[in-house]
Amino acid sequence: MRTISSFTFISLNGCYKRLGNDINWHQHGEEEAAFSAENLKTGNTLLFGRVTYEMMAGFWPTPMAAELFPEVAQGMNNAEKIVCSSTLGQAAWSNTTIISQDIVSAIRALKKTSGKNITILGSGILQTSLADEGLIDEFQVMIDPVIIDNGVQFLSAITRTGTLKLKSNRTFQSGTVLLTYTK
User: Fold this and answer.
1) Which of 128, 50, 135 is nearest to 96 (CA)?
2) Which residues partner with 151 through β-bridges?
3) Cβ neighbours of residue 147 under 8 Å, at least 6 residues apart?
4) According to the model, what pLDDT value does residue 32 have?
5) How far is CA 122 from the centre of its chain?
6) 8 Å CB contact between 158 and 134
7) Range in 28-37, 49-58, 164-173 with the lowest mean pLDDT
8) In this structure, are residues 111 and 36 in contact, taking their beta carbons and an 8 Å threshold?
9) What is the span of the domain harbouring residue 147?
10) What is the C-alpha to C-alpha distance for residues 84 and 39, in angstroms, rounded to an integer?
11) Count: domains in the chain
């Protein structure tokens, strides 16, 4: 059985993006890039909602990504990826599969199979849906020391109540804090 973890960066006031899907406020410095590169070495399958997928697919395959974050770009481009979308017709980014029908049931079935563990990157709407169904085993939340206006709150539409256990924490030189929680 596979495990599903999520990774989301949020602002100090709990937002994972600004309106219009703006994430330019996120502090992704050298130390955070090294953390991302190390995480990609786990070989987990990456899971995205459509909006996050399109944003990632628009950046990581570019020469700019390869120049700025070479290890992360290579890991992202080589990783097996799944995008959950009822509207995306095709996925041009390498190694990508689309799940378009009954997404929660498809992810529940995928989780029961053998294979690589799964990591959701961003994808707030997808995370909320899967968290509501109890399908996420671990939450990694990276809190940037910024407050943003016009933000969208992380897990704001959740209907399930639950208690998590702190597994680990890490503070980066930038003041960013990574908290890892398990069910």
Assistant:
1) 50
2) 18
3) 11, 12, 13
4) 86
5) 3
6) no
7) 28-37
8) no
9) 4-182
10) 22
11) 1
Amino acid at 163: T
| Structure tokens belonging to residue 121 | 């990157």
- Cα–Cα distance, 117 to 122 (Å, whole number): 16
- Measuring CA to CA, which residue among 144, 107, 96 is closest to residue 6? 107
| Interval 62-113: pLDDT, tens | 999 999 889 889 999 999 999 999 999 899 999 999 999 999 999 999 999 9
- Return the CATH number at 14: 3.40.430.10
Residue closest to 33 by CA, chosen among 58, 5, 3, 66: 66
pLDDT digits (tens, 9 = 90+) for 10-24: 999 999 998 888 888
Q: Is-contact 23 139, C-beta < 8 A? A: no
Burial 93-115 (b: 16+ CB within 10 A, else e): beebebbeeebeeebeebbeeee
| Terminal-residue alpha carbon distance, the chain | 16
* Alpha-carbon gap, residue 127 to 49, rounded angstroms: 9
What token pair was written down for 66?
Answer: 């390869």
- For residue 127 the two structure tokens come to 């995370």
- CA 44, CA 16: separation in Å to the nearest integer? 22
